[in-house]
Design a protein that fits this description.
The complex is a heterodimer of chains A (407) and B (150). Chain A has 407 residues and is α/β, with parallel strands linked by helices. Chain A is built from 14 helices and 17 strands. Chain A is globular, with a radius of gyration of 22 Å. Chain B is globular and about 40 Å long. The chains are: A alpha/beta (407), B alpha+beta (150). At the A-B interface, helix 12 of A face helix 1 of B.
């Protein structure tokens, strides 16, 4: 297997070739949002230059081309997740919208006061708040799988948390705050043994590892485009067809209907039942191009290279004095969260930026994780396949600079 | 260039106040207090005031935050002790103006001028102003109150 030609890959990402505050940009904030290759930018631009029209409507040529491109992207997402059918792939704005949709359309109709929704302590706010809202609406209770000091899920009491009252298990595939890869396949099997459906929040997983929803046997898998080299404002979710068939539409409007009269509206078939209104056509096409891009190099190859970067960066930080790595799970992807002794992460972020190193500092939309560790925030470097060992060194250099300044 | 900017931001005085914040204590006999939160970065502090009529007899704070927010709070307590409420409000306005890049009389700011470098870092202005918004809320309120900055 040939090694990746990173310099060639970086040429596909023009944004990376710039200076920030007099230094070469080291973009290490990929867990917040990834950069887009030219192939994605051009796919969007080509769509608006050549094919732009509404989908599923006109008989004219442009509408047909737009519809074809939109549906071709759906097929790309289907293959990307290895879903059985295109009917199981619904375009949404992102993982957040998908979770809200599933909460309201799938879970709410079967939820009674006293029922339980199970999430984990590692979740992003997007996989907490929609469930809290649902609990407020129905009188259900939110239960939480605890975590360990290493940042892994503590599954010692997992069986007891799966009760006859549990109506859904909603858990992240990869933690955005710590990078922990959760053992979701085992968790899904255990939940299914008790007939509990499972939603996987894959927002942080799809850019970093291959996903097979049939192998996982999850009931729902949600993700956002912008973290996997696609535009913002577009994402998709997978749902098992028999479940989607039973679910009522979430939003009403055009495109989600077969016929409308003031007496009765007949809803459209899957997946259009869930795609009310004109969708983000360009975004979907861009997401399809992002999937093509990853496939053209090979997701496994990208993942391996990126993981080598994470391991190298982790070792370099471990070798430094005064650094505490937050999240030391055995299985991790992309994310390196850390604290510099005696320095608030917000100061770290500013000093890094002055050296062209872009990281995230804050609570990473995972405040319960911060509360667990008793810290207000962390500094978080997160890698993508276009990052380099030189950028890892820039990260280490920036840490040294912080320590000098705060000595 | 950038290192010089950083030194402007993280001046010796600021580093010193961050390491050894002044008036960093609880005040059991305070008659005004307010909580300040910056939810984005997790800065959280409480400002205590003991007002004697119109005069700030004592002011202190507690909490945690970045170097800029802690140093700013510490410098603020030094600047406000013994001032009248009207003087304190005037200083609050002055600090706010400086942070948003307006020309201000630096002599009137006194030692607080060490925070002038912050205006070059727009993302950090709210760190420097959190304690001021909080003390403003404390002065305006009879009871416990809170402010949140974004």
């Amino acid at each position: 297997m040939s090694a990746l030609d990173i310099q060639a890959i970086r040429k596909d990402f023009p944004i990376l070739d710039q200076q920030v505050n007099g230094y070469d940009l080291a973009y290490l904030d990929n867990a917040a949002s990834s950069q887009k290759p030219l192939q994605v930018i051009e796919a969007i631009s080509d769509y608006y230059r050549q094919d732009n029209a509404n989908v599923h409507r006109g008989v004219h040529r442009l509408s047909q081309r737009a519809t074809d491109a939109y549906e071709a992207s759906r097929e790309k997402v289907r293959k990307f997740l290895n879903a059985k059918s295109d009917k199981e792939i619904v375009f949404v704005r992102g993982a957040t919208e998908a979770i809200n949709l599933i909460a309201q359309s799938f879970v709410r109709p079967q939820l009674n006061a006293g029922d339980e929704i199970l999430v984990s302590h590692l979740e992003h706010h997007a996989n907490i708040v929609p469930w809290q809202m649902l609990c407020e609406q129905t009188g259900a209770t939110l239960k939480v799988i605890p975590m360990t000091l290493e940042g892994e899920l503590d599954l010692s009491g997992f069986d007891d948390l799966l009760t006859p009252k549990t109506k859904i298990l909603a858990v992240g595939h990869v933690s955005n705050a710590l990078g922990t890869v959760n053992p979701i396949k085992d968790m899904i099997a255990k939940a299914h043994a008790k007939d509990i459906p499972v939603l996987i929040d894959g927002a942080q997983a799809v850019p970093h590892l291959a996903v097979d929803v049939q192998d996982l046997d999850c009931d729902f898998y949600v993700f956002s485009g912008h973290k996997m080299f696609a535009p913002t404002g577009i994402g998709a979710f997978y749902g098992k067809q028999d479940l989607l068939e039973e679910m009522p539409p979430w939003q009403g409007g055009g495109d989600m209907i077969l016929s409308v009269s003031f007496e009765h509206t007949q809803y459209n078939e899957l997946p259009y039942k869930f795609e009310a209104g004109t969708p983000h056509i360009a975004g979907s096409i861009g997401m399809g191009a992002a999937i093509d891009y990853m496939n053209s190099i090979g997701i496994d190859k990208l993942a391996k290279y990126e993981h080598d970067l994470l391991v190298a960066a982790t070792q370099k930080l471990e070798a430094l004095d005064g650094i505490r790595i937050i999240g030391t799970a055995k299985e991790k992807a992309s994310v390196l969260s850390f604290m510099i002794e005696g320095v608030h992460p917000h100061d770290v972020g500013t000093i890094f930026d002055q050296q062209g190193v872009a990281i995230r500092t804050g609570h990473h939309c995972a405040q319960p994780v911060m509360q667990f560790f008793g810290i207000p925030a962390t500094a978080r470097a997160s890698f993508a396949f276009y990052n380099t060992m030189e950028e890892v060194d820039a990260l280490v250099g920036a840490i040294t600079k912080v320590q000098e300044l705060f000595a | 260039m950038s290192s010089a900017d950083l030194r402007d931001l993280y001046q010796q005085v600021i580093m010193d106040h961050n390491k050894k914040p002044r008036n960093f204590r609880d005040m059991p006999d305070s008659n005004h207090l307010a909580h300040g939160n910056n939810p984005l970065c997790g800065d959280a502090l409480v400002v205590y005031l003991k007002l004697d009529g119109d005069t700030i007899e004592d002011v202190s704070f507690q909490g945690s935050g970045c170097a800029i927010s802690v140093a700013s709070a510490s410098l603020m307590t030094e600047a406000l002790k013994g001032k009248t409420m009207a003087d304190a409000e005037a200083l609050y306005e002055l600090v706010h103006k400086q942070m948003t890049g307006e020309d201000v009389d630096t002599a009137a700011l006194g030692k607080l001028d060490v925070l002038s470098g912050v205006k070059e870092f727009p993302a950090r202005v709210k760190c420097a102003t959190l304690s001021w918004h909080t003390v403003h809320a404390a002065m305006e309120s009879e009871q416990d109150s809170s402010v949140t900055t974004e």
